[in-house]
Amino acid sequence: MYEKVVWPERYRPETSAIYALNDIDVAAPAEVVWKLLVEAEQWAGWFPPEDQVKVLGGGTELALGTRYTRVTVGFPMSLHVTEFEPYRRLSWETVVDGDETGSSAYHGWVITPTADGCHVLTEETQQGPFFLEELGHKRPGALYRYHQDWVERLARTAEAEATARAETGAAAQAGAPAQPTRGNAGAVAAKAAQRG
């Protein structure tokens, strides 16, 4: 059994208007998946819908207490990282900029090491009139579909990154010049996405 998100009381799935759970097995170490998740400004490189992410306060990666902004499906949002356990847990609270209804969301990621890499689980709850109207009524199931695409692309990218690292390590041991893993991983991920 895999661990799940630790919910603040007000965001528990049983009392939330909208809830989605997505998970996937990834043939890559938890460290590789973690790095991709905390480099939020780089998400668009492997998950194009998240192309307007900005970490605030001078940092470049998510950390406990980090505030950042993003535009998701056309809506500007402000987020605050509330849980940060390296290589295991990452969660944030979200409000929609300009929303006067008090709507908010809580999104968590849980990474569990496995014999073949890791298991990634993501859960999100949303509350309030804004989310209920936009996702509950106008686009039912949209949150689940969005997150499924996100975890699948995360898995493909992490697996490509792990393969590139392994190839770089093997080449270095054989005396060949090391190749940049980010570039290799991107090419491998692009090929995997074309096949996918």
Question: How is the topology of this model organized?
Answer:
Blueprint: E1 18-26, H1 30-38, E2 54-55, E3 67-72, E4 75-85, E5 89-96, E6 104-114, E7 117-127, H2 129-137, H3 142-173, H4 181-195
Antiparallel strand pairs: 1-7, 2-3, 3-4, 4-5, 5-6, 6-7
Helix pairs in contact: 1-3, 3-4
Short characterization:
The protein is α+β, with helices and mostly antiparallel strands. 33% of the residues lie in helices and 30% in strands.
> What is the terminal separation in angstroms?
28 Å
**What's the Cα radius of gyration?**
18 Å
Shape: globular
CATH topology of the domain at 9-144: Alpha-D-Glucose-1,6-Bisphosphate, Chain A, domain 4
Number of helices: 4
Structural class: alpha+beta
Helix content: 25-40%
Largest beta sheet: what is the strand line-up?
A: 1-7-6-5-4-3-2
The largest β sheet comes out as: 7 strands, antiparallel
User: What is the β-strand count?
Assistant: 7
Share of residues in strands: 25-35%
| String of helices and strands | EHEEEEEEHHH
CATH class of the domain at 9-144 equals Alpha Beta
CATH superfamily of the domain at 9-144: START domain
Mean pLDDT: 88
CATH architecture of the domain at 9-144: 2-Layer Sandwich
Given as residue ranges, the uncertain stretches (5+ residues, pLDDT < 50) are 178-196
InterPro entries: Polyketide_cyclase/dehydratase, START-like_dom_sf
Pfam families: Polyketide_cyc2
Region (Disordered): 165-196
